[in-house]
Amino acid sequence: MQMKVSGAALERSTVQRPSLFDKCQSFTRAEQLKSAGLYPYFRILSSGQGPEVVHRGKQLIMMGSNNYLGLSTHPAVRQAAKRAVDRYGTGCSGSRLLNGTLDLHQQLEEKLAVYLGKEAAVVWPTGFQANLGIVGALTARNDLVVIDKMDHASIYDGTRLSFATTRKFGHNNLAELESILSKHRGVSALVVVDGVYSMEGDLVDLPGLTDICDRYGAALALDDAHGLGVLGRGGRGTAHHFGLEDQVDILGGTFSKSLGSVGGYAAGDADVINYLKHHARSLMFSASLPPASTAAALAALELLEREPEHIERLWVNTRHFQEGVDALGFETGKQQSPIVPIRVGDEQLTLSVCNRLFEEGVFTSPILYPAVPVGMAMIRTSCMATHTAEHMERALDTFERVGREAGLL
After folding, report:
1. Mind telling me the catalytic residues?
2. Can you give the pTM of this predicted structure?
3. Are 208 and 245 part of one and the same domain?
4. Which domain covers residue 124, as residue numbers?
C-alpha cells in the first residue's frame, strides 16, 4: 500500500537546519588532533585517582590530578561515603531550600565554618556553582565586580549572571586594581580572586590586595579551590597562609581537590551566608550535594585536622619535583604550590610533548588558549602526597628523556 505524505510534512522535511548549528558542523579541531594522534582530552581511566592510574590496561604515573592529598582513595573517606549511602541512599532528590537538606550538610557546614574561622558556611553541589552563586547573588545593577584576568572560568561566568558592571585587572597587577577602584568611588564593589591560580600555580598577592580593598571599601571574595588542604596551618588555605583570614569577607572553594570528593562552599559572616542561602540561584534551583559526597568531604576535613602528615608529604614531593625539573632546565615560572607548570609556548609542541609523556607512562595536562594567553601554552603537572620517591624519579627521568627529544632542554 502506498502511503500519502501531507504537504505540511513534506515542507518540514525540506527545511534546512537553522544556522545556529553551523558552528557545530564547522568545528573540526578535535578530529584534526585525533587524526594527528595528538588529541589529549577525555582519556578514559579504569581506576581511581591514585598516584598511578590505568588507561586501557596500562599503568601511568598520575601527574595531572588535583587529588593533592590522595584522600579520594583513603580508607576512612571511602568508608564514610559507603556508610552514607547505606543510611541516606544515593541522592537527596531535591534542592537544599526544600527537601534536600540533610543533617550531614549541616554538620559539614558547621565544621567548615569553625575550621576556616568564619561565623557560618553553606555548601553547593559543585565548586563551579558556588562561584556562580556568590557573584551572581551578591552583586546587582549599579554594583561593581572586579576580577583578576587569570581567575577561574566559574568566576567569569558568575559575572555574566550578575547585572553589575565587571572590570578585569592584569594578573596580580594591584596598581591596575587600584586604578579601577579609584574610578568607581562610592560604588558597592566586590573583588573576586583565586587564592592559588590553577594553571600557573602562583599565589594571589593577598597582603597588597587586602590593603587596597580596605582603603576603597571593597568587599573581597577568595576562591581557594587549590589552597584548601595545601596552604596555611592545618591546610586552612591561602588566607591563613598570610594570616589574613579576618580580612577576607568570603572564603570559597571546592571539595574536589584536596578533600577528594565533590562540592563547593562559601564561608563568611552569618548574615551574608544566610542571604546566599536564600538568593543564590545555583543553590536554590539545584539538587543538593549527594550524601556520599557530603560524608566523604566531612571525613576528609576531619583527617586534615588530625593527620597533618598528609600535607607534609605533599610538600616533600612538591619540592622534590620542582627542584628536579628546575635542575633539568625546564622553565616553570613562579609557582608556589603543588601545581608545577612546564612552559612550552607553542601549542603544537605542547600537545606533542604531552602525547609523548603519556606514551612513556606519565599522565599530564596540556594547557592551551583560552586557559592561557596565545603563545603561552604549557604542560600542567601537579604533585600528590601519595606519590613515592620512586614515582618522582621515574617521572623526572621521563621528563628529561622526552624534553631532550623535543628540544626543550
Report:
1. 198, 226, 257
2. 0.93
3. yes
4. 74-306
